[in-house]
Specification:
Radius of gyration: 39 Å
CATH architecture of the largest domain: 2-Layer Sandwich
Strand content: 15-25%
CATH class of the largest domain: Alpha Beta
Bound molecules: phenylalanine
Number of strands: 10
Number of helices: 12
Largest sheet: 8 strands, mixed
Structural class: alpha+beta
Distance between the termini: 91 Å
Length: 355
């Protein structure tokens, strides 16, 4: 028993020093673990002479309880200390001024894409996407573009390899091909996205945005194309009437093809859309060429329809009075703050929800 008393005294001293939780747990298992000092004493009880045994056992119990109490007390103490430290460290200074709240703006091009998408989705178009890096086949060949077509020229197109097999798409029209290859007609989709051409001045950037439209079904004709585009420009510019003309044009993937102009006039150095005797080109369109349909295994005697490609940046410039296209992609915060949109603003012509 004197052994245990010694241990108890040593422990008293030990527990007075600064210990952490794992050190105390170690002491605990040294004493009360399977082969712990106290546990061994308990095992000894059976070997002690019967006359001594009762006294030994009761003394042992007293010491065991004392030791346990001491350890539990130390654990509590350490835990309290930890809480106190945490409270000290994590004290919140409620007198500190708040951090400035900087709210981002939506880029006018993103806003315009949202507006365009909502107008077309209201009349049954769904949105498709395609990659910026395209195959030569999807960008040109499948779209009935002959080998000698000027658009294939290095001066116009950014090729990504010597063999000219991969390129940065020059228009969103390859999404027509992708969509028709993966599904069966009818198709009624728009595809907004980035496009690239080797061009740069006040109204041309090497990267710009287009939205492709494609509607293929039985009995779709040029009248549907006109009606659809007329609806679109009126909704987009928020005008009840807008002057619009189809000018004959050429694209290898549509026949007949047209470019669409809208009327405008200059008033006090500002463009006013809708009336006037000036014309502004905003998109290319036409009836999808039978060769394109054949290339994607759609039977042109059963299905036909129209396609269009709208220049998004140009529309954003017109609607929001921005006169240099390059500013769109300069990432100048002052410009973005001025022309950007509040994230919580619902597009002005998004009447779908409020109607
Ligand atoms: N892809 C054409 C362009 O970039 C536009 C277009 C799309 C024309 C669809 C007709 C049909 O100029």
């Amino acid at each position: 028993m004197s052994d245990l008393k010694k241990i108890k005294n040593e422990l008293f001293l030990k527990l007075k020093s600064k210990l952490n939780l794992s050190e105390v747990n170690q002491i605990k298992s040294d004493l009360f673990g399977k082969n712990g000092l106290v546990s061994l004493q308990f095992k000894k009880i059976g070997t002690i002479a019967e006359t001594e045994r009762k006294k030994f056992a009761s003394e042992l119990n007293v010491i065991k309880n004392e030791l346990q109490d001491l350890i539990n007390l130390k654990i509590k103490e350490i835990e309290n200390e930890e809480i106190k430290e945490k409270l000290q460290k994590e004290k919140i200074d409620i007198t500190l001024p708040e951090r400035p709240f900087v709210r981002g703006k939506i880029h006018p091009v993103s806003q315009t894409i949202d507006e365009i998408s909502s107008i077309f989705s209201e009349i049954g178009f769904s949105v498709e996407e395609g990659p910026d890096v395209e195959s030569e086949y999807n960008n040109f060949t499948a779209l009935n573009t002959p080998d000698n077509h000027p658009a294939r020229d290095m001066h116009d197109t950014f090729y990504l390899d010597e063999k000219k097999e991969r390129l940065l798409r020059t228009h969103t029209s390859p999404v027509q091909i992708r969509t028709m290859l993966k599904d069966k007609p009818p198709f009624k989709i728009i595809a907004p996205g980035r496009t690239y051409r080797s061009d740069s001045d006040q109204t041309h950037a090497p990267m710009f945005h287009q939205v492709e439209g494609l509607h293929i079904d039985k009995d779709i004709n040029m009248g549907h194309l006109k009606g659809c585009l007329n609806h679109f420009v009126k909704e987009f510019f928020e005008l009840d009437k807008i002057k619009m003309r189809f000018r004959p044009s050429h694209f290898p993937f549509t026949e007949p093809s047209a470019e669409v102009d809208i009327g405008y006039e200059m008033k006090d150095d500002k463009i006013v859309i809708g009336e006037g005797d000036q014309w502004l080109e905003i998109l290319g369109c036409g009836m999808v060429h039978p060769n394109v349909l054949r290339n994607v295994k759609v039977d042109p005697t059963k299905f036909q329809g129209y396609a269009f490609g709208i220049g998004i940046d140009r529309l954003a410039m017109l609607k929001y009075g921005i006169n240099d296209l390059r500013a769109f992609f300069d990432c100048d915060y002052r410009w973005l703050n001025h022309f950007g949109f509040d994230p919580l603003d619902v597009p002005t012509n998004y009447r779908g929800l409020s109607r």
